[in-house]
Amino acid sequence: MDPITGMIGIIIGGIIVGICVHFIPASAVGAMSASTGIATGPSMLSTGCGLAGLYAAGYMIGESLPLVVLSGAMGSALMIICTMLLANTICAFGTGVAPVAGSYDKDPITGWRQKPFMSPGTDGHSMPTTTALSGIIGALLGGAGGSLVFVSVYEMISPILESTTAVTIAGMVGAGVFLINCVIPAYVLVGKSEGMTDKKMKLMHKTFVSCLIVSVITAVFVYASVVVI
Amino acid sequence: MEPVTLTLMIGVGLAGAIAFIAGIIEDAESDAGSSSNPNSQVQLAPQIGHIITYYDKAIAGEPPQNGLWAAAACTIALLLSWRFADLGMGQYYAIFFAAVAGAAVTALVQGCLGIFAHISRITSMAAFKQPLYWHALLTPLPYSMGLCFLTALLLTLLSFVASGILGNSFAPPLIALFMGITLGSIASGTGDIHYGAERLYQHLPFGSGIAISNQGDIDLKGEYGFRNSVDTPYFCMRFGGTITALAFGLLIFLDGWSRLFTFAGPWTSIILEAAIIAVLFIFLNRLEKYTRDSYGPYPGQEDA
Amino acid sequence: MTTQPSEPPVEKKEIPNYKLYLLAVITGIISYFIAALNPNLSFISIILIWPAFIAAAGCVEFLCRYGLGTGTSSIGYWGTACGATVVFASQFIETTAYSPFLEIAIATLLGYAAGFCANKIIKMKIPRIELNSAIIAGSTGIIALIILEIFAGGAGMAGTTVYYIYPVMYIGIALTILHPYNGNLGAGENQTRTLMLAMCEAALLTSLFGFIGILLPNTPFIPALGMLIISIIGFVIFVSIWWKRVKEEVYDVVWAGYPEGVDH
Predict the structure, then answer these.
(1) Is B41 in contact with A32 (Cβ distance < 8 A)?
(2) Do A117 and B298 touch (CB under 8 A)?
(3) Fewer CB near the last or first residue (10 Å), C or N of chain A?
(4) Which residue of chain A comes nearest to C121, CA vs CA?
(5) Are C35 and C45 in contact (CB under 8 A)?
(6) What residue ranges are annotated as transmembrane (chain B) (predicted)?
(7) In chain C, pLDDT over 90 holds for what percent of residues?
(8) Do B205 and B291 fall within a single domain?
(9) A126: part of which helix (H) or strand (E)?
(10) % of chain B at pLDDT higher than 70
């Protein structure tokens, strides 16, 4: 991969990472069963699943680009489905509430009504089917974006450095770019998101532009430090 | 069976087992310090007139703090194992001794940060007449440090297994950072619900959710006398901690398991993981149906 | 410890963060050149990077007080990602044109750009968010740069094993800048106590790095040992200052017992 392609890879990866956060249902008050979504902040959760994706991509480095990217996507989707399934289990058997979404009345996939199952004074609990699907989509995007950044940086620096060094530095830079971009959407989401059924999906263009600007600066800098200097 | 596959299989099993135990311990550590999201409830309690004796550790969000424990312990372990190897110790012995030393240093750092956080936060509550109780700090502190030691040790061993036996190409400290942050977000997404929605609010009816108006009205009494933070993990470990552990253990185990097969070349693991995700998604849907059928609509909400 | 900027004990007015940052940049650059010219003096460099921790912690406090929409921890590791990633990406490549000014400037620019996006595109309307984001990113850049310089022992980074400590550096710096505010969170939070805690934690982190430096194969022994000893001395001094302040502000200190007026 020549450095220009690598630079474009970092930019695209960064933008995808920013967008993925919108799809992941997360809310800090979820820890009190008081709102729909996984019980932690959106950026925190996206970081967790993105880094699980990077870990999975680490097994595949050296293979072709689609393999590494898909492996990362699957790693993060696996992390998020494990988390959602077992969070629902805790809600069902530990706190005694059924999964309910606050942002729609009828589940678009299963057609089950949500409102009657919601306990008074809350915005929903854990993840019903559609919300969970949204989480999986988000994790696939996040893992793919993170691995794309990782593989781009790796391909750029691997001719200069020896292989083991290059992998670790690329992993660290990939994680860094991931962390920069996944916190920016938090300014839009303000600590709470219900995934793709949330109204805040309409604000995604703001995330897109912000992540574009930040990723371009990062990518140009990485390009410059590899090629120009 | 080829010996390489056998080694890999042992590695996958070992990684899954370590991950499972690390999950239990990590969740207990966060509950013992009432950190992560339920911390907001402990923080709110003095404002509505409840004087608390919880250990208010709140070092950061759970993911970064775990990332630090794991990364610090693993870095020290790796560097120290090189030093031991220079002295003529065998590689594996060196790693085991060094991992213990690294985790011990990490536990000290955790203790310092925990003391800072607890004392500073209690000081910030001075306006609500919340005194600084030494027993609320000193009883859970060694316990929490011990759990931190175990978490750091297990995650260090896990990253050495992932890099040495399973063949992940990252250096062990970076794997430890990834594992630490991932485990932190899993634990704060699953185990904390049991602490935040059940243990802190045992006086509310089971199954009611925690309405926003009730937030901060946490339980102050333990099974006997005033509740201290050491009373928490024994309750949460039974259910919340085990489920957290299952999530993290499943992630590590299934991820490794999908790499054991080679029927479709390098695409095998991706196909298998996609299948696993689909199966787990069906489980999620069935679980939703089961809870809806068995609990029924909330009384008074049927025609809302 | 005459180099510490935020000492005025009972001052009501808050110190503006840009002044802290200016101090951090000046001491940071001095510290870089000390470490680069004579590695054996790098224990002085360690004292001179503590202001950078304080500047970053001050900005985290400023931003989070506005109810940012992200958790305190998110802003901490976001800022470190901006600063430290720039340093990590460029440090390992052997080069002649590289200078500390360039990396600090790029890190600051990246932080400024993200703050600008948050304010102008997402319309958060937090006053001075650009400036504060830039300061967090720039300060973490300074910290990462100088610690790596000390560990490289003046010999350059290429070919060393220093990259093994990138993860712990990254997460350690992130936690140290976000924790002072997060640890002080509450109604009685004030800048003086937060910055005092930032000093304690900065010294704690540098002593951890000093310990790691002793173990690193490429790092000369004397600077690393100096770093560890000077950090532990600083830690003890700062903790005693902080504890004095806590005793002034806390409601009461009690060994054990039940709260008054509660049946038990």
Answers:
(1) yes
(2) yes
(3) C
(4) A206
(5) yes
(6) 6-25, 67-85, 91-119, 140-162, 174-195, 235-254, 260-284
(7) 21
(8) no
(9) strand A123-126
(10) 98
State how far the Cα of C253 lies from the Cα of C247, in Å rounded to an integer.
8
In a domain, C179, yes or no: yes
Examine residue C229 and state whether it is found in any structural domain, yes or no. Answer: yes
Check whether residue B271 and residue B138 sit in a common domain: no
- The pair phi, psi for residue A111, each rounded to 5°, is 75, 15
CA distance B185 to B178: 11
Q: Say whether the ipTM exceeds 0.90.
A: yes
Judgement on whether residues B30 and B145 belong to the same structural domain of the protein: yes
Secondary structure of B34-51 as H, E, C letters: CCCCCHHHHHHHHHHCCC
The DSSP secondary-structure symbol of A106 reads B
Q: Are C162 and C148 in contact (CB under 8 A)?
A: yes
Q: Which residue of B has its CA nearest to A97?
A: B207
CA C10, C12, C13, C15 torsion: positive or negative?
A: positive
Whether residues B176 and B271 fall in one domain? no
Residue B105 has pLDDT above 80, yes or no: yes
Q: Does B163 share its domain with B282?
A: no
Q: Residue C126 falls within a domain, yes or no?
A: yes
In a domain, B300, yes or no: no
Q: Which residue type occupies A165?
A: T
- Chain segment B16-62, per-residue pLDDT in tens: 999 999 999 999 998 888 887 888 888 888 888 888 888 888 777 78
Same-domain pairing of B57 and B162:
yes
Residues B127 and B242 in one domain: yes
By residue count, chain B amounts to 304
Q: Per-residue pLDDT tens for A64-112?
A: 899 999 999 999 999 999 999 999 999 899 888 889 888 888 888 888 8
Single out the residue of A46, A34, A35 nearest to residue A186, CA to CA: A46
Say if the Cβ atoms of A229 and C86 lie within 8 Å: no
Sign of dihedral through CA atoms A207, A213, A215, A218?
A: negative
Contact B169 A61 (CB under 8 A): yes
Residue C82 domain boundaries: 17-249
Give pLDDT tens digits for C59-115: 888 888 776 656 677 788 788 888 888 888 777 665 555 567 778 888 888 888 888
Q: Which two tokens stand for residue B54?
A: 């919880």
